[in-house]
Amino acid sequence: MGVYNAEISAGSLMLPESRRIAGLLLTSPSREQWFAALKLDNLLQKKTPATAHRQAQLIRKRLETLEDEGLKLIATGSQEVATQLLFAAAVKHSRILADFLLDVYAGKLRRLEQNLSPAKDWDAFLAECVQRDPELANLSASTKAKVLQVILRVLAEGRYVDSTKTLRLTPPHLHPGVVSYFKRHGETEVLAIMDMTR
């Protein structure tokens, strides 16, 4: 298993779906209950079981990086709190997203640049990633493009850019409830990656 994987390409933050999955995970479902919720009840309201399965697996892996308290906040908290915690879970689950924030996004902020320019930034960033994890070079061009597309959507949903069209940098102020959650759980690393305004 390399440093990076392309799992993030299965979907962006998916707030409504993630709220439902968080609620389900808080009931500690058995394997049977999990599959019944997805297949029989169509919890994610997807057209095909394959899509539901792929997205549910990604959401579950992300949510499993958080404590139960985080799941409750995602399931029932305000949109802002739930979105910021989902963003954090995505960062913790996807090293390629975390490194993009650290290497590309934070670098732009330091240089006082206004926008991401993915055509230029992405190739240089991937070349650095391949140095850390040569296996990444084996990903197809279409998969790499899909990973970039989802990363940009995650940044827009998390309010780190104003939209996927303009890609203007708009680092959010983290909600105090999110900051205190991470401090209580000793999550200083993810807090440092997310809180660009400190």
Would you kindly provide a written description of the structure presented here, covering whatever features stand out?
InterPro entries: BrxA, BrxA_sf. This is DUF1819 family protein. It comes from Candidatus Accumulibacter contiguus. It holds the Pfam family BrxA. The chain is mainly α and 198 residues long. It has two domains: 13-64; 91-194. It is built from ten helices and no strands. It has helices at residues 15-25, 31-40, 49-63, 68-76, 79-93, 95-110, 118-132, 141-157, 176-184, 188-194. Helix 1 (15-25) packs across helix 3, helix 1 (15-25) crosses helix 4 (68-76) and helix 4 crosses helix 5. The protein is globular.
What order do the helices and strands follow?
Answer: HHHHHHHHHH
Strand elements, count: 0
Q: If you average the pLDDT, what whole number results?
A: 91
Query: First CA to last CA: what distance?
Result: 34 Å
Helix content: 55-70%
Proportion of strand residues: under 5%
Poorly predicted regions are none
Organism: Candidatus Accumulibacter contiguus
InterPro entries: BrxA (IPR014948), BrxA_sf (IPR023137)
Pfam family, one: BrxA
Protein name: DUF1819 family protein
